[in-house]
Amino acid sequence: MSERKSNKQRRAEIRDKRLKRAEAARRALAQPDPRWRDEAGPPPVVGGVATDRELLARYNNTYDLLPAFYFDRPFTCRDCGEAQVWTAKQQKWWYEEVRAPIDSEAVRCRRCRRARREGDPAGNALRERCRQLRALGARAPDAAARRAIDEALESKWWGVRVVALETLGLWADATSVERLKAMVSPAQAPPRGSWLFQARSAAAKALALKLPEAESDWALETGLSGHREGGHLLEALVNRPRAFWERALETEWRRADPERLIRLVWAVRWNAADEALYRSWRGKLRGHADRRVGLAVRYAWGEEI
Ligand SMILES: [Zn+2]
Known about the structure:
Shape: globular
Helix content: 55-70%
Order of helices and strands: HHEHEEEHHHHHHHHHHHHH
Strand order of the largest sheet: 1-2
Strand content: under 5%
Structural class: mainly alpha
Bound molecules: zinc ion
Number of strands: 4
């Protein structure tokens, strides 16, 4: 078997693992655990909204897969590509008032839903623009393509700007990468709700699409430093060779900052397919003076706690 898998394979594996984990969480929440069934008690996770399972059971064929709580769910609008959250309250309305099937999910943002309903020409134009911008990402940039991206980054629709950032991430040439990096780590923290605030996250995700080998150390450092978008960058380090992780483990072990070590444990777990690497570090990490490091190792590899 080849040591290094293709990015595509690794990403597919990561996606499958996430889906499995989400499904496990969903099942756990659907268990008739007395703690969660106690109507006077708080939901197990902040932001959870209790479901009316009796009602849901009447409109769905299944009881055992029905959730005990709704949680805000992130999704990407199928039409405009904008990152959205389907809130717990909206889900309650959708499943319990509209009585939609429990496996139906939000796929479009409010604006795009309306545009579809009304055949809104502005909505269609927006979709067409996003389609064209995405198409630019498939080939190397020329002057005209770069101009189109510059214009898109001035669009009043943030969804268009996000698609433009994705295109920069797909090009992944030096200019585009520098631009995205500057957005991920702006000189000053952008105010909540501003474009630059949202751009930080969108740029990190765009960089993760095709992170160049030469940016590995920057991505690792940004991720380990606890940067709020660092998770995307750590996840982008799929397919880095064993030596890369070995070196990171050595460095962080010497630095002995438990927070950084914990982040690294998770990054190794996600990105290094190599179980031998884990076996060679397991004992050392689990014996760390800070108990949280050992716990992270156990959680990350799904061992008995
Ligand atoms: Zn949309």
